[in-house]
Design brief:
The chain is an alpha/beta fold. The protein is built from twelve helices and 19 strands. It folds into two domains: about 5-55 and about 360-450, Sandwich (Immunoglobulin-like), CATH 2.60.40.1180; about 60-355, Alpha-Beta Barrel (TIM Barrel), CATH 3.20.20.80. The strands form three sheets. It has a nine-stranded mixed sheet with strand order 17-16-19-14-13-12-1-15-18, with helices on both faces.
């Protein structure tokens, strides 16, 4: 029997789980779920799915990435990027946009690429050595003169690093000037959505989050000034390297980190609510496993384990109903680890997005009591139930399975991403009510089945 068939047979009865990993310590904030604690405690052991309980639509914009004039997709990778299903492109991506002034031609080329990929274009205008009038002119050119109707805009990139880099602008000064930029841009096109402040390394823990030289918390200061004007509250997060030597994460460190993202998002929402008195959409508009651009290591951003981490982080962003997320970055050179594509081929993170492209749009209840396994489930428009199962353990895991309302066997299509399967179809599997599921080590399994 082939290895694929053996693995397929291990996936006896797949059905869903929902990650119940402990989250990083932080404020006690309820998860956005329709389930009560009593309901969760009374659920059967192992994996539990209830397709009849809908938890809301999944935002399409969590499957975004970054792009810029300093990177490119070649003819070999462009068709793959079209098939990937990226839904939003943030541009010009990273610090480049605050040290360079983009040209109208570059804007045209970016919009053309975004449209070709089926992605919403999202521009962050230059802040350093720029003016509100220059930002307004960018909006005028794109949305009035060219009619691109770009909806998503932000102002500057990681302003929380400006002061330390010698560029000036503490938190109070930036918040005030951001407002001047925002009002000028909105005056040109009131329909645009403003995302911000895009600070670096948000954690949601007061003694860790970025502060300026006077001790002002960057996010809280921004929201106190602009909570009435910003449309989406956005931050950046790269968990590693986390030491002075700037070494890559160990495998166990990397795969333990994704469990912290539930708590991070909840704390972000709590800060927004505390400072503005209301709930606003939130986003993580730059994220990856490492901020260093190393490549070729066991856990560097171009590695399989980093892709597994990415798949689990996306699952948790879905669980927390995050509205916007942009991986960093779509393309890079061979020696630069951040890119989903190197010049001539895709890297492991690409296959994570291929799996999610087949995932449903309406989230339903899914739960697992195994701390190494995350699960999410959603209904597709064609009526299929889709289930994503992520096993972060180096060992195969078998769990009891309960699917509410399931009374007869059905047939599902199984897709597997692991160290030897690139989101490959393993064929049809018969799914029995009751029974168990077995997940291969360090893997993401997607099951698509009719209800």
């Amino acid at each position: 029997m082939s290895k694929s068939k053996i693995l397929a047979s291990l996936l006896l009865t797949w059905w869903l789980i929902a990650g119940c990993m402990p989250v990083q310590p932080g404020p006690a904030i309820s998860a956005p779920s329709s389930e009560t604690t009593a309901e969760a405690e009374s659920a059967p052991a192992g994996v539990f799915i209830d397709p009849s309980v809908e938890l809301g639509a999944i935002s399409p914009y969590i499957f975004g990435s970054n792009y810029g004039p300093w990177v490119s997709l070649r003819p070999e990778t462009l068709p793959l990027a079209e098939a990937m299903g990226v839904t939003m492109l943030r541009w010009p991506g990273g610090a480049w946009g605050d040290t360079n002034t983009v040209t109208p031609l570059q804007v045209d080329q970016f919009v053309a690429l975004a449209r070709r990929l089926g992605a919403e274009p999202y521009i962050h205008v230059r802040f350093l050595k720029s003016t509100p009038d220059a930002a307004a002119e960018m909006v005028r050119y794109a949305n009035v003169e060219k009619g691109y109707n770009i909806r998503f805009w932000s102002i500057g990139n990681e302003p929380s690093l400006f002061e330390a880099a010698g560029d000036g602008w503490n938190a109070v000064e930036f918040a005030a000037e951001w407002r001047n930029f925002a009002e000028a841009m909105k005056a040109v096109d009131p329909s645009i959505l403003l995302l911000g402040p895009e600070i670096h390394q948000f954690n949601g823990t007061p003694n860790v989050d970025p502060r300026d030289s006077a001790g002002n918390d960057w996010l809280r200061t921004f929201l106190a000034t602009n909570g009435d004007l910003v449309d989406v509250v956005t931050v950046h997060r790269y968990p590693f390297p986390n030491n002075a030597e700037r070494t890559s994460a160990q495998p166990e460190e990397l795969l333990a980190d994704s469990a912290q993202w539930n708590g991070l998002v909840r704390r972000l929402r709590e800060v927004v609510r505390a400072e503005t008195g209301r709930d606003l959409p939130v986003g993580v508009t730059e994220f990856n496993s490492h901020w260093s651009n190393a490549a070729g290591g066991k856990t560097t951003p171009d590695s399989f384990l980093s892709a597994l981490w990415l798949g689990d982080v996306l699952a948790r962003l879905i669980q927390e109903r995050v509205e916007y997320a942009n991986q960093f970055i779509l393309a890079s050179g061979v020696a630069q680890g951040h890119g989903i594509f190197e010049p001539y081929r895709p890297r492991p993170p690409y296959y994570v997005y291929l799996l999610y492209q087949q995932f449903g749009a309406q989230q339903v209840v899914a739960r697992s009591d195994d701390p190494a396994v995350t699960a999410i489930a959603a209904l597709r428009d064609d009526g299929a139930l889709t289930v994503m199962l992520i096993n972060r353990s180096p060992e195969a895991i078998t769990l009891p399975l309960t699917v509410a309302g399931m009374e007869a066997p059905t047939v599902g299509e199984v897709f597997l991403f692991d160290s030897t399967h690139n989101a490959e179809a393993l064929g049809a599997q018969t799914i029995e009510p009751g029974g168990q599921i077995t997940l291969p080590p360090e893997s993401i399994t997607l099951v698509v089945a009719p209800l």
